[in-house]
Amino acid sequence: MTPILEARRLHKHFGLTHALRGLDAVIDPGEIVAIMGPSGSGKSTLLHCLAGIIPPDEGEVLLSGEDIGRLSEAERSRLRLTRFGFVFQFGQLLPELTAIDNVSMPLLLAGQSRKHALREAEDWLDRLDIGDKADKRPATLSGGEAQRVAIARAMTIHPEVLFADEPTGSLDSLSAEVTMNLIRNEVKAAGTTLILVTHDPRAAAYADREIIIRDGRASVDSRVAA
Amino acid sequence: MMNPRFLRLAIAGNARAAGRLAAMFFGIAMGMALIVLLVGAFDGLDIREARSAWIKPVGTHATSADIADGATAVIAPMTDWFDGKSISRVDIYAPQGTVPRLVDIPAWPRPGTYLASPALAALIDAKPAAELGNRYGTRTGILPDETLKGPDSLAVVVGQDLETMIPRAGLVLADTARGKPDTETTGFRTIAAIGAIGMLFPVLLFVAIATKLGAAARRETFSVLRLIGATPRQVGIIAGLETLIVATAGTAFGALLAAVLRPVGARFEAVGARFFTVDLDIGFLPTLAIAATIIVAATLVSAIGMHRARIGPLGAARAIAEKPVSWRRVLPIVIGMALIMAAGLPESLIPDGVVQVVFLGGFLLATIGIVAIGPWLTALAGRAMARFSGSATGIIVSNRIAEAPVATFRSVSGLVLAVFMVTIFSAASAGVSGRFAINDRPDRMPVDALLTIVADGATAPDSLPGVTALITGTRGGRATYLAVFTGADLAALGIGGDRAADELYRVDLRRFTAAASTASLKITPIASAPADRMPHVLIARTDGSSTAMEMARTALQTETAWQVPPMTRLESNLLGPARVMKELSTIAYSGALITILISGLSLSVSTLGAIIDRKRVFGLLRLVGMPAKTLDRVVFLEAATPLAAVLVFAILAGYLAAWLIVRSLTEGIGIGGPDLTYILFLLAGLIGALAILQISRRFVRHLIDGQTVRFE
Fold it and tell me: What local confidence, expressed as pLDDT, does residue B668 receive?
């Protein structure tokens, strides 16, 4: 089986900091992979390289066997728009838009009609149990609600890979558990690969596999003991 | 008490702060320099009018009997012309021992000699004597700068003998004469105040925008300070101190900049003449007062902004929503327009002393009203756009506009204000120009002709240089404006109609020389000529060239005993109140130029601020895959939509205000439609705005990438 994502000998510098030092990783389709490690170990840098947000200084990232480093900026934008989804610590929603407009945004950017985009967004909000918040703006949502809107926004395009960077970092333990359950159920149902960057061992417990990064290298790559 | 080292780190601790502080510093410095120069110009108008008022003296009218014995000094103020330029002229008869003390000129010219301003002296030297120099005699001196309005002033004092002065119109007894500056007239003051408001307002707006630059970036810094234990008061002090320091440094630099730019500023024409550089110098204390006002205002803007932001330890986590804009924002412009309209009511309804206050108050309120109504109109446009928009760009832009109309309108407020001002200035000046546009008509004096009223007993010369036909009219009654011509003379003047060549006709010279009135010329046949048949008026036709006109004018002045100097129909319509109105158009385009320049600066500074403020949002959009071009469109439309929404309103409101202003200041003058200059100004403004937005789009690309969302 061709891996959905493969990192080969990735190197990345930020000034004098050597964030990634020849990192290798292989991620199969439909897997849930938790990337863990101490602060400054290079977790988020790896996520950004895998998602094509920043190019590595050396090495390559293959998406279904294709080197995304060879893609133009516009092509990488298209990749993020059609094949990747993102969830961040604070939801990172557009403050001026309502929840439903936030969720429909990727579909509109992909050129779908507003009617269709709104219907899809509504379905996703209902599915995540926040249909009654559709017309609320981010400032009026709780942290957990905002995170669900972010998940809906990420999933609405049916991404092949969902990147989640500390998705429970700003939530209380109950909300964190609900959020992780939601993410796991949805990605499993959709067959989406989930790459989860986290400090939290409880969040990592939802993964099929853990990659532990230390000093810019993958020090442990193992299946989580169920 | 806070540690000064902590303050230094908190205020200027990182490179990003340095960029923001530099932008604020230059914004405030530019604003300070412009305000100092504008106040200087306003003040300078008064100074130079007072200084040069002597050349338009008023006093007790002198009759022929008063000066018959030759012992009384008299002066005759008038306007002379050369090639479309007016020359302030005073003819003087000053016998020994009766030296007029109108202005401190050590030696008044004797008969046959003259004193000229430097600009006129240069003009006389550059032109053939038959066209200009011969009018005045021999030059014996130069009028000093201390007696003149500006370096371009054309002014002359001509010594005359008694015989020449006796028939002159408008003689004033020299010992009763005093200068009458234009600044004493309500019209002049009102026009100058309109100009000052029109130019100062965009500058103040610019200072406010510069002060608010990068408020979001500061919010983040301050929330972190709160997180590590700073109290709200400490954060308030840091915010205020930062603005205080930048504003103090900015105003000091601005004062310096004003001093450096003063010679450049003096080159701009205001009210028909350039300034002497020294006229724009307002002195140390007024400069200090302006600086203090700016510093206090900027610090207050900053402090109020911080108070409204209510920054807590997690202050950066949530966006602060704007309060919904109320329909009450319509009120200032409506009340302002109503007040301007009220100023035009008959005197029986509104006392004379109150008119100017009501008028200027109305204009000020209407100007504030344009800025106040902008967000309301912007929100309406945003809501309409949200209803009909289906694209990602449209939804982002319309929601942003509808949710934050004040912030989005702020970027274009300077430009909208500039368009409002330019429209007022242009419509008013086009109306005034239209009023005095001179075209040949079959019942008016030809444009190539000069008319002079001559003294009783004067004879008409047989021929004059530059003159193709010299038509003589005789007195047509007691009033000096009535003249009698033969049918042949009227035909020679191009007056249409079937008349016998040797019949006599009485003509009203006022309508014959009118500019705008379309009333037909009344030509009354008369049975017999007055007994004396002495020349009363001479009309010299020329080939219309400047050389011929000025040769003819000079010859008429030197070879006839004239009462009123020769003038064309255009020139005779540019005296008195008409001159004040023409000056309005001069102020108009100076104002327009300044407002357009300032609005360009405002747009660039506020767009920059808006991008810094929304860096995280733009980064997020790029992260979820929004193509760079789509993001460009968002940035462009967020500025262009409020501009388009309010621009049409600003133009219409400008025309309405112009109509009301002209109506209340003048009688019978309307406003004009858009002329080429106006269209060029609008185009320049829009092209400038597009160029600024284009640069901003490049800046967004440079500033925003997918990582922004993580690090902002």
Answer: 58
- Give the pLDDT of residue B466: 87
Q: What does pTM read for this prediction?
A: 0.67
pLDDT band at B516 (very low <50, low <70, confident <90, very high): low
Interface probe with B: pick from A84, A92, A141, A142, most Cβ of B within 10 Å: A92
Longest dimension (CA), chain B: 106
* pLDDT averaged over every residue in chain B: 79
- Alpha-carbon distances of B246 from B123, B200, B210, B238, B607, rounded to whole Å: 49, 21, 11, 12, 20
Burial class (CB in 10 A: 0-12, 13-18, 19+), A87: buried
In chain A, what's the furthest Cα-to-Cα distance? Answer: 50
Contact B536, B457 (CB under 8 A): no
pLDDT above 90 coverage of chain B, percent: 16
Which residues in chain A are contacts of B320 at CB distance < 8 A? 139
Does the beta carbon of B15 lie under 8 angstroms from any beta carbon of chain A? no
The DSSP bridge partners found for residue B85 are B82
Query: Tokens standing for B180?
Result: 């009458």
* DSSP, res B270: B
Q: Interior CA angle at B424 toward B423 and B430, to 5°?
A: 85
Cα distances (angstroms) measured from residue B630 to each of A95, B7, B391, B616, B700: 19, 41, 10, 16, 12
Taking the CA of residue A205 and the nearest CA in chain B, the distance in Å comes to: 24
How sure is the predictor about B211, in pLDDT bands with cuts at 50, 70 and 90? low
**Regions in chain A scoring below 50 on pLDDT:** 224-226
| pLDDT at B22 (0 to 100) | 79
Which long-range contacts (C-beta less than 8 Å, at least 24 apart) are formed by A215-220? A215/A21, A215/A41, A215/A42, A216/A12, A216/A18, A216/A19, A216/A20, A216/A21, A216/A22, A216/A23, A216/A41, A216/A42, A217/A21, A217/A22, A217/A23, A218/A23, A218/A24, A218/A25, A219/A37
B10 touches chain A (CB under 8 A): no
Chain A residues with at least one Cβ partner in B under 8 Å: 44, 48, 51, 53-54, 73-74, 77-82, 84, 86, 88, 90, 92-98, 101, 104-106, 108-110, 113-114, 137-139, 153, 165
Please write the tens of the pLDDT for every residue from A155-200: 898 999 999 888 887 778 888 888 888 889 989 998 999 999 988 8
Exposed e or buried b per residue across B173-193, where buried means at least 16 C-beta atoms within 10 angstroms of its C-beta: bbeebebbbbeeeebbbbbbb
**Distance (Å, whole) CA B348 – CA B170:** 33
Query: Which of B385, B397, B400, B620 to mutate to test binding with chain A, by most A CBs within 10 Å of its CB?
Result: B620
pLDDT tens profile B619-647: 878 877 788 788 888 888 888 888 888 88
SS3 B509: helix
* Interface contacts A/B by beta carbons within 8 Å: 96
Handedness of CA A163, A169, A175, A176 (dihedral sign): positive
Cα–Cα distances (Å) from A191 to A78, A182, B36, B101, B682, in that order, read: 21, 14, 69, 103, 57
Res. B317: pLDDT tops 50? no
A77/B391 CB distance under 8 A: no
User: From start to end of chain A, where are the E strands?
Assistant: 5-14, 17-27, 32-36, 58-63, 66-67, 84-87, 161-165, 193-197, 209-214, 217-223
ipTM (interface pTM): 0.74
Rounded to whole angstroms, how far apart are CA atoms B275 and B38? 12
Instruction: Tell the residue number behind the tokens 């009609």, with chain if given.
Output: A113
B471 vs B273, higher pLDDT: B471
Q: Which residue has the tokens 């004018």?
A: B553
